[in-house]
Design a protein that fits this description.
By secondary structure, the protein is α/β, with parallel strands linked by helices. Helices cover 46% and strands 12% of the residues. The longest helix is centred in the last third of the chain and has 17 residues. The radius of gyration is 18 Å and the shape is globular.
């Protein structure tokens, strides 16, 4: 079991697809190499940005296996392993562990709603049966399940639960951080682009972001300005410069916009799988415009 909380910048990897919706593994390797060379500390394989919810279990397993092989120990690997039952989640998590993943990202039970105690027991069972550290994926906008701060504090004290990925408002994230920062081996991970800098400013030193796929170097710089150089003025200036492209990330259903951005700089973004819709021509235009402002040679 893992007792060490993740730290630094984790990329929720896009999954490039061919025109027939099959996975483009050559493109996947190019994206992984690009973000590692850009300074990222870890990758998330098969998360929501990777469109796992439009994949079969066998496809998810193949993606996890090949993702771990491509990374080859260069950075940390987290795998999206959430399933509808604790038993199925444990099976996929331990498969990911065998492939080389160090962490597993797991959603709470959703759709068929349960109680806070039901959620607690779900994660307790998964943590006890898993060979790698469990990261709670808190994204109530997608699941309609909001975890209270007291519940997260209880979960954080379970052995082998090492982090919570917060995709929620700044108030909840900051309260969660303040109420869990004393717990050894547990951290809060920010996952909203506009909230990255405010979260860094209060001490949250672990994060996810869709935009890490597209601008790894710039996002590495933003992080280091806070935690290495203690230069908040420069960090604010860079954050302001990047804000327009932050806004584009979810102006249309993601990961369409970030894939459009990757296409624009000559990286393999590719199509999104149905029923997601392809990024509009207007989105592609806006993305090229903003990338040009950042100095990119766009296609």
């Amino acid at each position: 079991m893992s007792g060490k909380a993740p730290k630094g910048l984790f990329v929720p990897l896009v999954t490039p697809f061919h025109a027939d919706e099959s996975i483009d593994y050559e493109g996947y390797k190019r994206v992984i190499d690009y973000v590692i060379e850009g300074g990222m500390d870890g990758v998330l394989v098969g998360g929501t940005t990777g469109e796992y919810h439009m994949m079969s279990v066998e496809e998810r397993k193949e993606l996890i296996k090949k993702g771990c092989e491509i990374v080859g120990g260069r950075v940390h690997v987290m795998a999206g392993t959430g399933m509808n039952t604790a038993k199925a989640t444990i099976e996929l998590t331990n498969y990911a562990a065998e492939c080389g993943a160090e962490y597993a990202l797991v959603l709470p039970p959703y759709y068929h709603q349960t109680t806070e105690e039901g959620i607690y027991e779900f994660f307790r069972e998964i943590a006890a049966g898993s060979k790698i550290g469990i990261v709670i994926y808190h994204t109530p906008g997608a699941t309609n399940v909001e975890l209270s701060v007291p519940l997260i504090r209880r979960l954080a004290q379970i052995e082998n639960i090492v982090a919570v990925k917060e995709t929620i408002d700044e108030t909840h994230t900051s309260q969660t951080y303040m109420h869990t920062k004393d717990i050894p081996g547990f951290c809060v991970m920010e996952a909203n682009e506009p909230l990255l800098l405010p979260s860094y400013a209060i001490g949250i030193d672990a994060a996810f972001s869709i935009i890490f796929n597209l601008l790894p170097r710039e996002m590495r710089e933003l992080y280091d300005l806070v935690f290495q150089k203690n230069d908040l003025a420069a960090a604010r200036a860079l954050n302001e410069k990047l804000s327009p492209i932050f806004d584009l990330m979810e102006e249309e259903p993601y990961p369409g916009p970030v894939k459009a951005g990757l296409d624009a700089i000559g990286m393999p973004g590719g199509i999104v799988r149905k029923p997601l819709t392809q990024p509009s021509d207007e989105m592609r235009r806006k993305m090229r415009e903003e990338l040009k402002k950042l100095g990119y040679d766009v296609k």
